[in-house]
User: Which sequence fits this backbone?
């Protein structure tokens, strides 16, 4: 119950990683505003977590629209009190290489990830400052650190989130507002799980798993645990951090996975690897 007494707004809290965040925050004692454009999923997660007493509400929210952001912040204050935690998890992507990406898709990715993160912070931070501080956790990606082909808009957007995390931490640290980010690796959301089961060859999926030092892909709950920690008072001396929650995928040179002699050294160190 390390989030007992916290009032949190979670954008994108109705789907994928966001659902796990909403569940974890309620389990840890927080009251949660779920800000998401997915109406059916939003109402479902609201009903689920409120089965034993009201701990959350859902509000249709497009984080790229200032009026939507203002409305969900105002309702949070009305129902639960000033927000002390903000989790920016709203996301959107459509893959495409740099010279093939569509301008409208590029604009949308930057709007949801970068503008949306800024708008939420803009309208939440003043309330945190008046309340004596708070914590913001942004959901970035390992792709803010390493490149994967065909994802120019997504990587630019996630890089923007990681840079903004450092800036906000610097600007608002004196007001006791901590700002951190998590940078997940491949996470098996329901959508991602379906793709791996139906769209990818079994050998490719296995090779992907074996490229991770921990020999598994991530789960939404892995991300939720890290976010809950950063949002809690246990992380009271941590700000400006982009925490990799990636099963170790980014700690290795590409050769460690692709170059046979190096893979053999890995197997000699850990035979079952």
Assistant:
């Amino acid at each position: 119950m390390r989030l007992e007494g916290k009032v949190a707004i979670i954008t994108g809290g109705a789907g994928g990683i966001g659902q796990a965040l909403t569940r974890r925050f309620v389990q840890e004692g927080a009251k949660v505003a779920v800000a998401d454009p997915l109406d059916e999923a939003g109402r479902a997660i609201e009903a689920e977590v409120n089965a034993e007493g009201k701990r959350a509400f859902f509000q249709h929210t497009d984080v790229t629209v200032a009026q939507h952001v203002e409305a969900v912040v105002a309702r949070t204050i009305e129902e639960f009190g000033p927000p002390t935690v903000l989790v920016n998890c709203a996301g959107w992507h459509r893959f495409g290489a740099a010279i093939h990406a569509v301008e409208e898709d590029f604009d949308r990715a930057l709007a949801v990830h970068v503008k949306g993160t800024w708008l939420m912070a803009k309208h939440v931070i003043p309330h945190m400052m008046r309340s004596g501080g708070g914590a913001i956790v942004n959901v970035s990606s390992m792709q803010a650190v390493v490149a994967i082909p065909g994802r120019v808009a997504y990587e630019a957007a996630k890089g923007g989130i990681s840079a903004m995390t450092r800036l906000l931490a610097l600007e608002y640290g004196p007001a006791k507002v901590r700002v951190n980010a998590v940078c997940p690796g491949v996470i098996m959301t329901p959508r991602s799980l379906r793709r791996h089961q139906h769209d990818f060859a079994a050998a490719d999926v296995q090779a992907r798993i074996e490229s991770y030092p921990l020999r598994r892909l991530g789960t939404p709950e892995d991300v939720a645990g890290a976010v809950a920690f950063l949002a809690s008072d246990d992380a009271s001396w941590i700000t400006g951090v982009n925490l990799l929650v990636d099963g170790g995928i980014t700690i290795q040179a590409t050769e460690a996975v692709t170059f046979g002699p190096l893979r053999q050294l890995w197997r000699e160190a850990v035979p079952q690897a």
Observations:
- DSSP finds ten helices and seven strands in the chain.
